[in-house]
Amino acid sequence: MRILLVEDDPLIGKAVARGLEDASHSCTWSKNGRSGLEEALSQRHDAIVLDLMLPEIAGLDVLRQMRAKGVKTPVVVLTALGSVDDRVAGLREGADDYLVKPFAFPELLARLEAVRRRSADRPAPTLIVGQINLDLTNRRVTCSGNHVELTPTEFSLLEILMRNAGQVVTRKMLCEHLWEGEWEGVTNVIEVHVNRLRNKLAQAGTDGLIQTIRGRGYALKAL
After folding, report:
1. Are 141 and 134 in contact (CB under 8 A)?
2. b (16+ CB within 10 A) / e for 134-169
3. pTM of the predicted protein model
4. DSSP 183
5. Whether the Cβ atoms of residue 99 and residue 111 lie closer than 8 Å to each other
6. What is the CATH number of the domain that holds 84?
7. 78, 102, 121: which is the final residue of a domain?
8. Cβ–Cβ contacts within 10 Å for residue 213, how many?
9. Based on the domain organization, do 67 and 138 belong to the same domain?
10. How far apart are CA 58 and CA 77, in angstroms?
């Protein structure tokens, strides 16, 4: 893993950096909040170890600004502040885990590996099939670079088709995904939504991607 360590204590910083390198991880060590924030915003890391009591910019402010800028790298907060309120504050600002000083290095390493695994297991915030880009975080769709205005139902319909691109999505699957209910008798309703979605994608510059599989359901071409 490529780890960013933001820690002003020279003894702790040196020990953690050496331990990470001995464990075959790459470590960049920033010794204050300002340089740590700049590093987090400008470079890609697999995980971040962040102290809260930092000079120049406090750790919570570093974390807050990182998340506000869209940095989703998993963060383990490392600090001498061990009260429940302090832990809650860090987690609310976007920390993924919390370790109180003094700590055993093997525990820090285990927590870093755990948050990295959880991050890798998260579904991608953006789905891309051909020229269609579906942003799950902001619920925004672009097609051939053009914004496509969709209703919530149309957005959910496109999402399940994109997640199963190249495969048949049955009418029953669509009904359960869209309305969490029985699918008998709603075939015409599904068809109306599919046709509206087709028309909107066609107007945005991508036509013919949604195929009707007679007697089964629909499929989005995997391009």
Report:
1. yes
2. beeeeeebebeeeebebeebbbbbbbbbbbbbeeeb
3. 0.57
4. -
5. yes
6. 3.40.50.2300
7. 121
8. 12
9. no
10. 12
Whether residue 7 is predicted with pLDDT greater than 90 in this model: the reply is yes
Domain tally, the chain: 2
* Sheet architecture: strand order including 132-135: 126-129, 132-135, 140-143, 146-148
Phi, psi (degrees; rounded to nearest 5) at 83: -75, 160
Contacts 24+ apart (CB under 8 A), 193-202: 193/153, 193/154, 193/157, 194/157, 194/218, 196/154, 197/150, 197/154, 197/157, 197/158, 200/148, 200/149, 200/150, 200/154, 201/132, 201/143, 201/148
Report helix, strand or coil for 222: coil
Q: CB under 8 Å to 65, separation ≥6 — which residues? A: 37, 57
* Amino acid identity at 65: Q
Specify whether the CB–CB gap between 59 and 33 falls below 8 A. Answer: yes
What 3-state DSSP class applies to 139? coil
pLDDT digits over 159-197, tens only? 999 988 889 998 888 877 776 555 555 567 788 889 999
CB count within 10 Å of CB 2 equals: 14
Token pair for residue 138? 């902001």
Tell me the three state secondary structure of residue 182. coil
Closest CA to 80 of 102, 110, 65: 102
